[in-house]
User: Fold this.
Amino acid sequence: MDKSKINILVVEDERGLCDGLQEALRREGYMVSAANEAEAALELISKHLYNLVLTDVKMPGLSGLELMRQIKVRSRDTMFILMTAYGTVENAVQAIKEGAYDYLAKPLDMQRLRALVQKALEFQAVVAENNELRLRLQKRSEPGLLIGNSESMRAIVQLVEEVAHSDVTVLIQGESGTGKEIVARTIHHRSPRANRPFVTVNCAALPEQLLEAELFGHVKGAFTGAIANKAGRFQLADGGTLFLDEIGDLSPKGQGDLLRVLEDGCFRMVGGTEVVQVNVRVLVATNRNLRASVEAGKFREDLFYRLQIVPISIPPLRERAEDIPLLAETFLEHFAAKHKRRRKTMSPEAARLCQRFPWPGNVRQLRNLMERLVITCRNSIVEVGDFPEEIRAHDRNATTFVVRAGMTLAETEKLLIRQTLIHVTDNREDAARVLGISRRALQYKIKEYGLAKERGPGASECPDL
Assistant:
């Protein structure tokens, strides 16, 4: 461990002790900053990353415990050692429960301090190594779907990173096959709860009479067949994340039960009298328009607003065609390794065919097709002729496109312009004439809808912009 690259922050309101600790740690070779109050420490944290924070428990303003909580939200990997005087040991023990590495009682034993700092930093290195290994293994076992250079995917990846380190409820919306569960798992794996359970429930697959028992558990004798106590999904996910898929299919009673537990984290098991409290982060997903369901009286308005604290909308694959080649290559590489086949790549014509196809099954459909091609294609280059007939036939007859019920006028207009640019002509002047609008209006629409990268089958390297 190169101590000169280790950054430590000392937070102590007693200036003499603060200066002494700073000097002692510097002599050990560490890079050390200091603050005499929590507010100053937070300002430093906003500008620099620290491996370890050594803080007093009792300070004017924010306590060391509250300081740790706030810093952990911004930098979950930062280690904490708390210094405590007699009478505040109980607070230090609470801090350890919330993620502090250890605490030191005042007056400080400098030899023990140096040893504890060394152990905390070694532990941090081991955790970082394990997380890196876990991520590598996860990538090998299952390819990620949050791949792409489109503006929409970059925005989603950034939003996932921002919400992962909080406990806020997230509503993930998108068509079937767009990767809603992958988004939820990614949020969980990048959160402080990553080492705790990730539990999923498909609300559409459970009848109303079983849903309550499935979510909250039941006690022995609660109903016929309840021969023993059984924990529900909320209890199984305690400390971790509960993912409720197809939330739009939740019954009215289920909606009311979910709203209550979201408010205070408490519930009663079916047939039970004791109140059970859990610490669960809830993520939900739906392929329905929940706002329309609220207006139709099919979904509770108060629950809707409680769920969509942070909404994430995943666009269908047909609306981010520029991401398709990268996704396809990722899947080809993954399944070649999985099935022990030679690595395959797509020809330029095959990649363009993929971009022109509307993919009603979205990323899931593309993923399944790439696995099929790994098995059935004998050559290392996947050509257009290797694709199933229904995809090639669609490309030959691509004179229509599907408008789904519930699409907005803007969504329909965007799809019409995109299909024109890809299947009719990528020349802006010709496309404007086909669409019956001015070239200037088309340019504005292309910019508004992020369609500048859409290219037709005969596009040149410098399209008419």
About this structure: DSSP finds 19 helices and 14 strands in the chain. The CA atoms of residues 349 and 384 lie 7 Å apart.
